[in-house]
Fold each of these.
Amino acid sequence: MRRLTASVFTIIFRLVSLAGCGKSVLITEAGKAAETGLDYSDDSLWIYRSDASAEGLQADCFMIGPSVYTANGGDYNMPTYDASALISYKSTIGMEKGIYSDTCVMYAPVYRQVSLEVYDMPADEAEKYFEIAYSDVRDAFLYYMQNDNNGRPLVIAGFSQGADMAIRLLK
């Protein structure tokens, strides 16, 4: 059995609190901001969330998934109801789960990640879409800390866009 170790790819943190809880911002078709927020008490917004088979594992892993979404009809943040995007996202998260599954209980939220097209935008224009994605990750993480962590050691992991979100979260 692999032991949980610090490496170039994982950083173990024991987090007590994280400041900055707030509402998500959604950019509407008209380009106007509207306050919204995802309810992470809804299990459908988690690809993985603790299960009975995880008993005895050494730590938790909060996994933030990579970019899989391509803008569909001008939506630059992945809609949480887009079945095709969610299937792709779940598949990608499933591949990453194997890295941690021997030692960690997995927690992987669905978030309104930016589409690949956002990476081609000027930084000042793209940031509003990244902020939507980050606010979902932050809200999911705060929900996890308040309801699921119970003081356990924690790995925050991310790949691609998820790594950017993890860095934002740690800041």
Note: Strands lie at 11-13, 24-27, 33-36, 46-48, 59-64, 104-109, 154-158.
Amino acid sequence: MYPIFLTLHNILRWVVVIAGLVTVIRALAGWLGNRPFTRADNSAGALYTISLDIQILVGLLLYFAFSPLTRMIFEGLDQVMQSDTARFFALEHSLAMVVAAVLAHVGRSQRKREPDRQKHRAGAIWYVLSLLVLLASIPWPFLEPGRPWLRLLGLVF
């Protein structure tokens, strides 16, 4: 089960990042271009928050049920803070992703009863913050706790 959930988590990363970028671009274009708030704008925000929620759910399943890394972390909690990689996955990554999801949900809820320009403005601010936290918390291959760009059931790219 671990390889399946790890692959799903990796693929969903790209769905979340792309949905987040599209949502931020739409919100900024709407705000700065003074465009009307459309159904597509609303759908982009919904796709971003829903994909982020699903990603967190898969991540929590990995964290608490399937990952051998977190099993080792739970067995040696006293040593977790001494290892950058262990601390990143035990604490920083998980916490930051929850913060990113909260920021995205705040952005989505802030837009409900506002005029169009304020909907775009609120979305732009909250979605940009969410996306920045998200991007800073992904274990990119070029960072210390890095992971591959793409995993497909044991194949890594």
Note: The helical segments are 2-32, 39-66, 68-75, 77-80, 84-110, 116-137.
